[in-house]
Automatic annotation (TrEMBL):
It comes from Paenibacillus eucommiae. The gene is asnS. Belongs to the class-II aminoacyl-tRNA synthetase family. It is found in: Cytoplasm. This is Asparagine--tRNA ligase. It is an enzyme of class 6 (ligase).
Length: 431
């Protein structure tokens, strides 16, 4: 009798016969022995079929298997130090579920458009599986970090009547007889939640109708947005450092095999463990001029600028105190220098750009009213937000981390499209 198992659990069944539901990844034969590379989502294992040790039916079944054919395989688990998983199966029985014909994604090279058209199949490949496993581990680490520190998960709405940063890049829809938009951030709602629960975070999809085709941008992406009552800018920066270091170290601990599949230089990730360097916007402008950029104070940084700044460091770096005019209406001005705000962008190393944006929020009711006038914001649409400053206002801070950019950096990927199972890009809504 065999025990039903997964490939990931065969290490617990050494010397036993197990039955695994799986797919054939690839196959090779030496004439009298067939080597089946099998996958089931939890991992990979090699099944060895020896002609002299199995029935003719089992041998022929193995012979009939094609790439991505599905089957139940039964075999005895034994150690194999040569394999990456450390185990293999001496095959005893094969039950074919389906023989796959003309599987589109073969071991040859395919173009990106072809692979994206077949994304539903491409995610079965070892590389894409590794990325999605790491993404899942990052999500788990995010939740663990906040749960361990007393944060409450709060779900802001996806359909909103207004925007926290203007409606230019929002997807418009109708909410019965009213105008509505797909959210680009849950931040304003999280501020309200923080006034009720103290420390909160949201984790959900956001949407930006930005006609961008860069390797860093998606139309639909996931954001982690904490908000914290009674936390100032400096305290928020410390939490951000701890948060990102926690995620990276968690992935290093739990996803070594997947990082190896991706050929990621883990020595670089291992350095992301302590306090991160900081550079003010002013100093960053000076640095860019030294590097030959024509850049004036008050301009925003683009990808080339962020990359040059990041190249000076081996870990993420904070760029702090941006000009007030560059940032959102809700950011608190520096009391000692009101032309800049108490904010920071965290720039990932190795050219991956901004992964976190955060600030201390304005808590003064009069200043918030002034900001509404300056930005021509509708008081009718935002009255609930103004109420947060009217009824028990407190110092508070928050930030947002983009999940896909973080996955891209940790995995060492060229393009953000591989970081999400089914990416939504400027000209791609299929599959």
């Amino acid at each position: 009798m065999s025990t039903k198992s997964t490939i990931g659990e065969v290490k617990h069944h050494l010397g036993e016969s197990v039955t695994i539901g799986c797919w054939l990844n690839k196959k090779r034969s030496s004439g009298k022995i067939q080597f089946l590379q099998l996958r089931d989502g939890s991992g990979y294992v090699q099944g060895v079929v020896v002609k002299s040790e199995v029935s003719s039916e089992v041998w022929e079944a193995a012979n009939a298997l094609t790439q991505e054919s599905s089957l139940y395989i039964t075999g005895k688990v034994k150690e194999d130090t040569r394999s990456k998983g450390g185990f293999e199966l001496d095959v005893e029985h094969i039950e074919i579920i389906q023989i796959t014909e003309d599987y589109p994604i073969t071991p040859k090279e395919h173009g990106v458009d072809f692979l994206m058209d077949h994304r539903h199949l491409w995610i079965r490949s070892p590389r894409q599986r590794a990325v999605l496993v790491i993404r899942a581990q990052i999500i788990q680490a995010v939740q663990q970090f906040f749960n361990e520190r007393g944060f409450h998960l709060v779900d802001p709405p996806i359909l909103t009547p207004s925007s926290c940063e203007g409606t230019t890049n929002l997807f418009h829809t109708k909410y019965f007889d009213e105008d509505a938009f797909l959210t680009q951030s849950g931040q304003l709602y999280m501020e309200a939640a923080a006034m009720a629960l103290g420390k909160v975070y949201s984790f959900g999809p956001t949407f930006r109708a930005e006609k961008s085709k860069t390797r860093r941008h998606l139309i639909e992406f996931w954001m982690i947005e904490p908000e914290m009552a009674f936390i100032d800018h400096e305290e928020s920066l410390q939490i951000q450092e701890q948060f990102v270091a926690y995620i990276v170290q968690n992935v290093l601990t739990h996803c070594r095999a997947e990082l190896e599949v991706l050929e990621r230089d883990t020595d670089k990730l291992a350095k992301v463990a302590g306090a991160f360097p900081r550079i003010s916007y002013d100093k960053a402008v000076e640095l860019l001029k030294e590097k030959g950029f024509e850049f004036e104070w008050g301009e925003d940084f683009g990808a080339p600028h962020e990359t040059v700044i990041a190249e000076q460091y081996e870990t993420p770096v904070f760029i702090t105190h941006y000009p007030t005019a560059l940032k959102s209406f809700y950011m608190k001005p520096d009391p000692n220098r009101p032309e800049v705000v108490l904010c920071a962008d965290m720039i990932a190393p190795e050219g991956y750009g901004e992964i976190i944006g955060g600030s201390q929020r304005i808590d003064d009711p009069q200043l918030m009213e002034q900001r509404f006038q300056e930005h021509e914001l509708s008081k009718e649409a935002y009255q609930w937000y103004l109420d947060l400053r009217k009824y028990g206002t407190v110092p508070h801070s928050g930030f947002g981390l983009g999940l896909e950019r973080t996955v891209s950096w940790i995995c060492g990927l060229e393009h953000v499209r591989e970081t999400i199972p089914f990416p939504r890009l400027l000209y791609r809504l299929y599959p």
